[in-house]
């Protein structure tokens, strides 16, 4: 079992920045491929970014590439999502997730990010 808790959400103006953190319980965090998803009101949950266990490989949705950066600190059992040049369309609840056998299995409770125009 892995428990995940997001923090760092909030309200920011367009063009601003936020950093989300995802704190994981347990000593096995380093063995999990981690991802971030988001869900806007009335829309389906969508992939944002992912990072390999070592942090050496990352993947991004086209809509955030060049603006968002995913990272992790295995010593702190924490994953991060640095979000720069935020746009109103980035407004959503952001979820941290851990993958097991190619399935995103463990999910946090979500963090609200609101970008005003």
Q: What low-confidence regions span 5 or more consecutive residues with pLDDT below 50?
A: none
Number of strands: 11
Multimerization status: single chain
Biggest sheet descriptor: 7 strands, mixed
* Beta strand %: over 45%
Which structural class matches the secondary elements? mainly beta
Q: Kindly, what is the distance between the CA atoms of the first and last residues, rounded to a whole number of angstroms?
A: 40 Å
Q: Write down the overall mean pLDDT.
A: 97
Tally the helices: 0
Helix content: under 10%
Following the backbone from N to C, one meets helices and strands in this order, namely EEEEEEEEEEE
Rg value:
13 Å
* Tertiary shape: globular
Description:
The protein is mainly β and 117 residues long. 0% of the residues lie in helices and 54% in strands. Strands 2, 4, 5, 6, 9, 10 and 11 form a 7-stranded mixed β-sheet that branches. It has a 4-stranded antiparallel β-sheet with strand order 1-3-8-7, with no helix packed on it. The chain is globular, with a radius of gyration of 13 Å. The chain starts with a strand and ends with a strand.
Task: Give the arrangement of secondary structure elements.
Blueprint lengths: L3 E4 L2 E4 L4 E7 L8 E7 L6 E6 L6 E3 L7 E6 L4 E6 L8 E9 L2 E5 L3 E6 L1
Parallel strand pairs: 2-11
Antiparallel strand pairs: 1-3, 3-8, 4-5, 4-9, 5-6, 7-8, 9-10, 9-11
What keywords describe this structure?
7-stranded mixed beta sheet; 117 residues; 54% strand
Quick gist of this model?
Helices cover 0% and strands 54% of the residues.
């Amino acid at each position: 079992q892995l428990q995940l808790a997001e923090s760092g959400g909030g309200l920011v103006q367009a063009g601003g920045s936020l950093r989300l953190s995802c704190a994981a319980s347990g000593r096995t965090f380093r063995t999990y491929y981690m991802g971030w998803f988001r869900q806007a009101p009335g829309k389906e949950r969508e992939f944002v970014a992912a990072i390999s266990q070592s942090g050496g490989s990352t993947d991004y949705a086209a809509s955030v590439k060049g603006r968002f950066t995913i990272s992790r600190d295995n010593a702190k059992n924490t994953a991060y999502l640095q979000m720069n040049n935020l746009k109103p369309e980035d407004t959503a609840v952001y979820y941290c997730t851990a993958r097991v056998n190619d399935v995103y299995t463990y999910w946090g409770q979500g963090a609200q990010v609101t970008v005003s125009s």
